[in-house]
Amino acid sequence: MLKQYSFEETAVQTFDDKTSLAMRTEDMQVFYGSNHAMFDANLAFPKNQITALIGASGSGKSTYLRSLNRMNDGIATVTGKIWYHGVNINEPGVNIYEIRRHIGMVFQRPNPFAKSIRENIVYALRANGIKKKAELEERIEQSLKGAALWDEVKDNLDKSALSLSGGQQQRLCIARSIAMAPDVLLLDEPCSALDPISTVKVEETLLELQKKYSIIIVTHNMQQASRISSQCAFFHLGHIMEYAPTGTMFSNPQIPVTQDYIAGSFG
Amino acid sequence: MNAKRTDFVATVVIDLIVASVVGILFFLLAYILTAGLPHVSWSFLTGATDAFSGAGGIGVQLFNSFYLLVLTMLISVPISLGAGIYLAEYAKDNWRTSLIRSAIEVLSSLPSVVVGLFGFLLFVVKFKIGFSVISGSIALTFFNLPLLTRNIEESLSAVSRSQREAGLSLGLSKWKTELGIILPVALPGIVTGIVLSAGRVFGEAAALIYTAGQSAPVTNFADWNPMDPASPLNPFRPAETLAVHIWKVNTEGLASNAAALSAAASAVLIIAVLLFNLGARLLGNYLYRRVTASK
Ligand SMILES: Nc1ncnc2c1ncn2[C@@H]1O[C@H](COP(=O)(O)OP(=O)(O)OP(=O)(O)O)[C@@H](O)[C@H]1O
Ligand SMILES: [Mg+2]
């Protein structure tokens, strides 16, 4: 029997005007048909920081994350506002393809295209009108270096991406995203299918990447959240219960539900 | 122990069933080939038929079969590709889609004789096109579309959702994702399906008897202008195919060696169909390696 926690008692931090934000949601709700999966989500993400979203399975982390770059279009109904560079991108008129180029996404299971490593990176670039060979080569190298994969694959760029290991595939997916020069990167449990060594590599990659990108990452692994994130949000049954700097969240959680979750005595 | 015994008995029964299926197939093949192959010769494969008795070679019919096949594929592949992509990617789960699916089911279960008669009444008689390659290939298209569409839809749906998400998350449009990412992965399956259906089309007789006709007028193989009435490429000439020829020689052949003629033609037909099957496999595997593994 799951313990009942009040959804009224929350501790969600806000930021003052001086903090520059990558993006922000305001009273966001998500419905899968009649299933109300996300309630009044108000979160703001500081620029060039890693924000971790934690919570039990089914608490709505992926639902929240996928709404941020409109990947839930056609799957769920999302209401409320999603502010990005002063624009509410949760409007029907917004160009979602453009939005997704600015807000990249990496998924739980590595999903490289069944193409060569090179093609994985340049395919979407070419589709977006970048045709110059030199520029494409430059982007390949920069993105693979950014994802800490360059040294492992630089001599085999024409090899099939499917022949890479899971960890390499995931870093390729990260490279593929950052090659688009996004400014926010969304990651949904990017390490859950990886071994510890690949996980460390991806984490190091992310720590490096936050200098240039704002990162929002869903993770089940609290050590991972504490290792890499600056801010941390805790989700419970579609509600955001607590949002605080990661250190504070783990050492001094404010409300019972977070305390129990972090202590591992949940439910 | 009991579970082990039932398991054993079941395995034996299944093995026997499989063996009998394979056995029947091999018996059929061996019978047709041994009966027919001794009568197959180069002059048989390339020679002309005597229009009255049906004796002589099958050169024109062989050509007609291939020509009809190519024309049919040229018409049916693009249409079923569009329909398959629509059903796999764009169709919503509503009554309209179920209606389309039911229509495809019904179309695929129409007897080919009925399709042939329909083609006869509509194209040959009503539109006054006459017995012709084009009437035949449109009839074959009716017969081919449902299977190809289903094959293409299934091949596309078999590609993992995560590939589509990857494409969309990079800001690619749905159409671009479909064409550039999903289609290449599905291609081996699609090509296999196309080649297999080519084998079926190649061997089809009933739908062609009343549409492409039962005569193979002597054509001038030096004249490749499709507009000339005597050209083999002219789509408006009657074109008896190999399968129709076999049927005709058997039912109304006046040649003294009609049995040998039809046996030989059957052997050629079977070999061609087998080659299509083999080709489907090889091409599918090749493309699969080409698309997924390293180049
Ligand atoms: N595509 C969907 N269609 C319908 N309901 C969905 C869909 N995706 C998620 N849900 C529902 O939304 C709720 C939240 O799911 P979500 O996937 O966001 O959880 P999560 O926190 O990401 O869980 P996990 O840690 O297991 O990934 C669940 O009740 C789930 O059943
Ligand atoms: Mg999830």
Structure described in brief:
The complex is a heterodimer of chains A (267) and B (295). Chain A is of the alpha/beta class and 267 residues long.
Structure description:
The complex is a heterodimer of chains A (267) and B (295). Chain A has a domain at 11-111 and 183-263: P-loop containing nucleotide triphosphate hydrolases (Rossmann fold, 3-Layer(aba) Sandwich), CATH 3.40.50.300. Helix content of chain A is 35%, strand content 26%. Chain A has ten helices and eleven strands. Chain A has helices at residues 61-68, 96-102, 117-127, 133-146, 150-153, 166-179, 196-209, 222-228, 246-251, 256-263; strands at residues 11-12, 21-32, 35-46, 50-55, 77-84, 87-88, 103-106, 184-188, 214-218, 231-236, 239-245. In chain A, the strands form two sheets. Chain A has a seven-stranded mixed beta sheet with strand order 1-11-10-4-9-8-7, sandwiched between helices. Chain A has a four-stranded antiparallel beta sheet with strand order 3-2-5-6, covered by helices on one side. In chain A, helix 3 packs across helix 4 (133-146), helix 3 (117-127) packs parallel to helix 6 and helix 4 packs across helix 6. In chain B, helix 6 (133-157) packs across helix 8. Chain B has one domain: MetI-like (MetI-like fold). Chain B is globular. Chain B has eleven helices and no strands. Chain A binds chain B through residues 69, 71, 97-101, 104-105, 107, 109, 111-116, 123-124, 127-128, 158-160, 162-163, 173, 176-177, 180, and chain B through 160, 162-163, 165-173, 176, 180-181, 184-185, 291-295. Residues 32, 35, 37, 55, 57-63, 75, 220 of chain A line the site of adenosine-5'-triphosphate.
